[in-house]
Amino acid sequence: MADLLGSILSSMEKPPTVHNQESRRKAREQEARLKKMEEDEKRKKAEFRKKMEKEVSHFIQDSTQKKKKYKPMGKIERSILHDVAEVAGLTSFSFGEEEESRYVMLFKKEFAPLDDELEAYRKGEEWDPQKAEERRKLKEQAALEMEASSRVQKRPVSPNSNYRDKYSHLIGTSSAKDAAHTLQANESYGCVPVANKRDTRSIEEAMNEIRAKKRLKKGEEEAASSGSNV
Predict the structure, then answer these.
(1) Long-range contacts made by residues 94-98, C-beta under 8 angstroms, separation at least 24?
(2) What are the start and end residues of every segment in region (Disordered) (predicted)?
(3) Where are the beta strands (DSSP E) in 77-227?
(4) How far is Cα 62 from Cα 69, in angstroms, rounded to an integer?
(5) Residues 133, 127: contact at Cβ < 8 Å?
């Protein structure tokens, strides 16, 4: 009987020690704090979203405003604002290099920024439409000048004047004078121009000479034939 009672008592859970009770208390307190922080964070997000929805609504109704710039805010706040803007049908962008300096800008759809405006904001510059128009005109002018320059370079180069006209006082001005100079030079060196070697006879004279040679040759052949028959 004593053995049975002992076994029952040993199987029963022992009362918690003071150390275990303190650990459990701290765990419960930490869990309560985390739950409260989550609830506070959730409440703050809801309040911030409600505030942004109200500001975005005023922005949309204000016909004098085309865009709205907010102060730098955290990543969660920016995410909420982007979501509110998308639901409201607006265009939104975040600008700023560093995380702590990033901010959000809202634009109405009909006044959505162009690439050069966005580039200015990304560089941390203020957008000036007048200066942007001047830069655009300068770019167009530079592009036209480059195109004109490339066309000039591709065009074949031709002299503005004939070199014979420019140096006529040195080489002569007419073909007759050129021929005279050439003939004089050829005669000096014992050369005969090709033109002087050509047959200057007429066609009729040449044909008569050929016929005479044929008759002479034919007569010689007949005479030779008669001599052999004798």
Answers:
(1) 95/121, 95/122, 95/124, 96/72, 96/124, 97/124
(2) 1-72, 145-166
(3) 91-95, 103-107
(4) 14
(5) no
R_g of the chain computed on alpha carbons:
55
164, 188, 200 from 182: Cα distances, Å: 16, 10, 21
Residue 97 contacts residue 66 (beta carbons within 8 Å): no
Domain boundaries, the chain: 22-128, 165-218
CATH architecture, domain defined by 22-128: 2-Layer Sandwich (3.30)
Distance CA 102, CA 125 (A): 14
Query: What local confidence, expressed as pLDDT, does residue 199 receive?
Result: 52
What is the distance in angstroms between the CA of the first residue and the CA of the last residue of the chain? 185
Instruction: Express each pLDDT in 151-174 by its tens digit.
Output: 777 666 555 555 555 555 555 554
pLDDT at 73: 94
